[in-house]
Specification:
It is a single chain. This protein is α+β, with helices and mostly antiparallel strands. Helices cover about 15% and strands about 30% of the residues. Strands 1-3-10-7-12 form a 5-stranded mixed sheet. It has a single domain, classed as Jelly Rolls. The protein is globular.
Length: about 270
């Protein structure tokens, strides 16, 4: 199948009415997502050429693509995944970012048969975290690992995302290129899934946002993207969502993926 340079698709953005309001939206179910987001038609560009020629970089655009072969047979086996997979992604992120130490917090598996709303395919444009919580989240994880944070340490949080079983043809991830994202477009919202309330962030719609995706990712390819970054002169967020790929054939296999959330210490 020939991959087009760009495709037209629909994604959901948090409603622009929330920008500038004192009140913060709460999203944690299908009902609250529908109430607080709206569909927008966008062009999503093939990121592979830009990744190959260096136009797209982790600190410039907010994401990058690498190869990672692993031996994990069942990502729902938490202990096996922690033992066999976490060290590989920690080393990968450390090598790419130059971090002194990297720690995986947890991982999440998404398939065509989700357990609930929270592990289904992401269906609106969002960031997983919020810069207002960078220090608190980072120091909390370090202290849980028995590490006392130092005043001169700087932190960044990353995600990795990798398909398994099948290439990611349908329901792939799409990203807003940080270089096209005014920070003023990013607003606060509360994620309320699984009976918790976490302050996170999401952009409102702007027609100038440049969208990218990696077509037909294979199970030995892995995306690394920003969740929040406290360093100067680096991309801060990488808003993302899955989308229904109109170029996918009718018999495309379901997307199955594993993602990790990692703290990098500089």
């Amino acid at each position: 199948m020939e991959t087009p340079t760009s495709i037209r698709a629909e994604v959901r953005y948090v409603n622009a009415e929330w920008k500038g309001r004192n009140e913060i939206p709460r999203i944690g179910s299908r009902e609250t997502r529908r109430a607080n987001t709206s569909r927008k038609s966008i062009d999503i560009y093939d990121a592979r050429p830009g990744l190959a020629n260096g136009e797209i970089t982790l600190d410039g655009s907010g994401f990058t693509l690498e190869k990672l072969v692993h031996a994990v047979e069942d990502f729902r086996d938490i202990e096996a995944t922690a033992r066999q997979y976490y060290p590989a992604v920690e080393k990968l992120v450390a090598d790419l970012s130059g971090a002194k130490n990297v720690f995986v917090r947890d991982h999440l598996v998404r398939t065509e048969v989700p357990i609930d709303f929270n592990d289904g395919y992401a269906r609106f444009v969002h960031c997983d975290y919020n810069m207002k919580r960078l220090k608190e989240m980072s120091e909390s994880l370090l202290k849980a690992r028995g590490i006392e944070p130092k005043e001169d340490w700087t932190y960044a949080w990353f995600n990795t995302w990798q398909p398994f079983d099948n290439p990611a043809v349908n329901n792939p991830l799409a990203f807003i290129d940080w270089q096209s994202l005014p920070e003023d477009d990013v607003i606060d919202y509360f994620y309320t899934g699984r009976n918790r309330e976490s302050l996170v962030a999401a952009p409102v719609y702007n027609p100038d946002h440049v969208w990218r995706y990696v077509p037909s990712m294979s199970p030995d390819e892995i995306l690394i993207f920003k969740q929040m970054d406290g360093r100067r002169n680096a991309s801060v967020y990488c808003p993302h969502t899955s989308f229904d790929n109109p170029a996918a054939p009718d018999d495309a296999p379901p997307r199955r993926s594993v993602e990790t959330r990692l703290l990098a210490v500089f």
